[in-house]
Design a protein that fits this description.
Strand content: 35-45%
Number of strands: 22
CATH architecture of the largest domain: Beta Barrel
Helix content: 25-40%
CATH topology of the largest domain: Elongation Factor Tu (Ef-tu), domain 3
Oligomer: single chain
Number of domains: 4
Shape: rod-shaped
Length: about 375
């Protein structure tokens, strides 16, 4: 049998064990409360808002073209029997570029020459008759009416000869038109015929880029021209050699829209273009549209307040949050440029914005901008 002393010792042991258990639970509860308190204060990363020079730039690719180009064509139809130049060839004013078969024109010249010879003979005969009758009228052998008739025949023969000579000149001019000549010094940039091909009058045969001033030509989206503002600076450089760059200025903006591409053709005048900027060279235009001091923030900082963009900021002294509406100028690759809403020096929350609320206490991570 267990004596009374043993029962008393057992009771004390159970009380000590229960007290120890309650103590452990109490300590665990306190530790949990402390951890919960620490979790309730979110840690955030911030960035100090500051003004930076915001340069609005634009760029586009195009090509070098002559400021003046000619569409060369024959003035009459015919078959091409000779082509002297091709694309890229340098030509001089008056140089023969292509020739049509002149058989028909040569036949016309022969016919016109024969007509001139016949009318010349008719005129000589009429002149001889007129002179003879003028002599005879002085003797009274002929009447004045016969002299007047001879005079009319002479004048008619003279007009017929003039008409025959005009037809000959026309035939000779047509023969000249069988040769297509350059109208200026320059470079052939396009060719639309081959030997043996029949061409129609006024159909473009060659495109000639005149020597002299050069243009940088671009196809620009219509909305890029909607502001109408003049660029601050504009430079053109070679796509393959960015170090070769020259200033340019807008010379012409096409009033028509290319409906298939939704673009407008813009021509930039390139003065003193270097020799490397040859016709057809691919170039890049770099445009500075505007410059202004603005605040930019990481795109992760953007939040929403009542459907409008907003940014969380931290009060430096109280370390509490506030959600401030902002106006956005534009979105860049990794940052958002603001028009207004944030002042320089404010602490903008970069990470941890998803579960914040107004006037919430936060802790700034070590190493964050202060």
């Amino acid at each position: 049998m267990v004596n009374q002393s043993q029962r008393l010792q057992g009771g004390r042991l159970r009380r000590v064990t229960l007290f120890a258990a309650f103590s452990v639970l109490a300590l665990s509860s306190c530790e949990g409360d402390n951890k919960k308190t620490e979790v309730d204060v979110p840690q955030v990363t911030v960035e100090v808002a500051k003004l930076d020079r915001d340069v609005l730039r634009a760029a586009g690719t195009g090509e070098i073209k002559a400021q003046v180009e000619s569409e060369l064509s024959f003035k009459l139809s015919g078959r091409v029997i000779e082509r002297q130049v091709g694309v890229g060839d340098r030509v001089t004013a008056g140089q023969v570029l292509a020739t049509l078969d002149p058989t028909e024109q040569l036949a016309d010249i022969q016919s016109a020459e024969a007509g001139v010879s016949a009318q010349d003979a008719t005129l000589r005969k009429a002149s001889s008759i007129l002179n003879r009758r003028k002599t005879l009228i002085q003797t009274g052998a002929l009447s004045q009416q016969e002299v007047d008739s001879a005079q009319q025949e002479f004048l008619s023969a003279q007009k017929d000869l003039d008409a025959a000579k005009a037809r000959l000149e026309t035939a000779q001019e047509a023969l000249k038109q069988t040769e297509l000549r350059a109208d200026a010094d320059g470079t052939i940039t396009a060719r639309n015929v081959e030997v043996g091909q029949v061409v129609q009058a006024s159909a473009t045969v060659f495109t000639l880029a005149h020597d002299g001033a050069r243009d940088a030509v671009f196809n620009v989206q219509e909305n890029a021209l909607s502001t109408g503002a003049e660029p601050i600076s504009l430079n053109v450089s070679l796509l393959s050699r960015p170090d070769i760059s020259v200033p340019a200025k807008i010379r012409e903006v096409s009033p028509t829209l290319d409906r298939s591409l939704g673009t407008v053709r813009v021509k930039l005048s390139v003065e003193n273009a270097p020799p490397e900027m040859t016709l057809g060279a691919a170039i890049v235009a770099s445009v500075v549209l505007a410059q202004q001091d603005r605040i930019s923030i990481p795109w992760q900082s953007i939040f929403s307040k009542e459907g409008n963009p907003a940014v969380w900021v931290v009060d430096r002294d109280a370390l509490t949050t506030a959600l401030k509406p902002v106006k956005i100028e534009r979105y860049d690759a990794d940052r958002v440029v603001l028009t207004s809403g944030i002042e320089p020096g404010e602490l903008v929350i970069v990470d941890g914005v998803q579960f914040l609320r107004e006037n919430q206490k936060v802790a700034i991570l070590k190493g964050a901008a202060q």
